[in-house]
Amino acid sequence: MSAAAQSRPFGGALEGLRVVDFTTLLPGPLATLILAEAGAQVTKIEAPAGDPLRANPPHVQGTPVSFALLNRGKTCLSLDLKNKDQQAQAEQLILQADIVVEQFRPGVMARLGLDYAAMSARKPDLIYCSITGYGQDGPDAQLAGHDLNYLARAGILSLSGDDQGRPAMPPTQIADIGGGALPAVVNVLAAVVQRERTGKGAHLDVAMAENVLGWMHGSFARALSGEVEPGPGEGRLSGGSPRYRIYETADGRFLSVAPLEEKFWRTFCATIGLDAERIAELGEGADLISEIAAILGRKTCAEWMALFQGKDVCVEPVRGVKEVLNDAHFNTRAVFEQKLETVADGTFAALPVPLAKDLRRC
């Protein structure tokens, strides 16, 4: 390797790969953000009105922060795909690319003449990823939906709920990320490896509703075995066990308590002053949950964490997002080291992505 090559900043594991991104909002943009962070050259195609995420608050100095978080490191290009000349421009970008990521309903790209069949006929090594709610075929392929609908269809919402059995609203877009963005990246990378061996591309059908089914291995095990699914808040990992709960402290904060294994459980109980006889008397059900709740409610979160310090008890305070941004462990590991150059004079942290540092572009 030449001295010049050695001194050149590392371009990332995917350096040299070209991606054309037709997606909006969260699933596709997060997927292509990860690819860009790994060094791929991503060109994001937007309609003349722009990605709808540009309109979402908050805006800082006129810049949409959510859009900036998900689309850093990409080249944005406005094209009206209904305009023949601009459609031809998009076509040329695809033919020069290695990977296409699109998020339209099935059939839209075909009507534009930009679908996998048309493009792969001219570029057989093209990797073409289509992210949708319900997949490219099947009776519900054209059904409109969002993250909440996909979680409902997959059965995940039925596993959460309040004490009256009403499903709980998820705090983030689980299907968009776990069923869309991350499976898209996994499939694209697998297709890149396959192309190295065969020279052929692939059409990747990423369906968010079905991709979150793998998140429910425990529920599937029970259903396949003929066991009754615990009600909301009754399962071992959903609130029914005193060993896996969220408890309130004296100052109104909360502790996530998860000493499932016996060695952790014994240390936890000893630290809070709960002896084995009392546990045996109450049993590991609602009565013990109430007992632990009463004990933990006698001290503040900080007081409990001081007592737990240095002990293997599987306890963490429930932190707010602003606390997370200042977390000493995360900051020691440089989790928020990268900055958004286009927002607040480069002082805002960039969105962390699940990519090992040795694979990222410098």
Q: What is the topology?
A:
Layout: H1 3-7, E1 18-21, H2 27-37, E2 41-46, E3 59-60, E4 63-64, H3 65-71, E5 74-78, H4 84-95, E6 99-102, H5 108-111, H6 116-122, E7 127-132, H7 147-154, H8 174-198, E8 202-207, H9 208-211, H10 217-224, E9 245-248, E10 254-257, H11 262-272, H12 276-282, H13 286-296, H14 301-308, E11 315-317, H15 321-325, H16 328-332
Parallel strand pairs: 1-2, 1-6, 2-5, 6-7, 7-8
Antiparallel strand pairs: 3-4, 9-10, 10-11
Outline the structure in words:
The protein is α/β, with parallel strands linked by helices and 362 residues long. The protein has two domains: 18-215, Rossmann fold (3-Layer(aba) Sandwich), CATH 3.40.50.10540; 245-318, 2-Layer Sandwich (formyl-coa transferase, domain 3), CATH 3.30.1540. The protein is built from 16 helices and eleven strands. The chain has helices at 3-7, 27-37, 65-71, 84-95, 108-111, 116-122, 147-154, 174-198, 208-211, 217-224, 262-272, 276-282, 286-296, 301-308, 321-325, 328-332; strands at residues 18-21, 41-46, 59-60, 63-64, 74-78, 99-102, 127-132, 202-207, 245-248, 254-257, 315-317. A six-stranded parallel β-sheet has the order 5-2-1-6-7-8, sandwiched between helices. The chain has a three-stranded antiparallel β-sheet with strand order 9-10-11, with helices on one face. Strand 9 and strand 10 form a beta hairpin. It is globular, with a radius of gyration of 25 Å.
CATH level-four homologous superfamily name of the largest domain = Crotonobetainyl-coa:carnitine coa-transferase, domain 1
Measured as a percent range, the helix fraction is 25-40%
The CATH topology label of the largest domain is Rossmann fold
So, CATH architecture of the largest domain?
A: 3-Layer(aba) Sandwich
Largest sheet: 6 strands, parallel
- What is the H-and-E element order? HEHEEEHEHEHHEHHEHHEEHHHHEHH
Specify the overall morphology.
globular
What value does the Rg take, in angstroms?
25 Å
- How many discrete structural domains? 2
Poorly predicted ranges: none
> Under the CATH scheme, which class of the largest domain?
Alpha Beta
Q: What do the pLDDT scores average to? A: 95
Strand arrangement within the widest β-sheet reads: 5-2-1-6-7-8
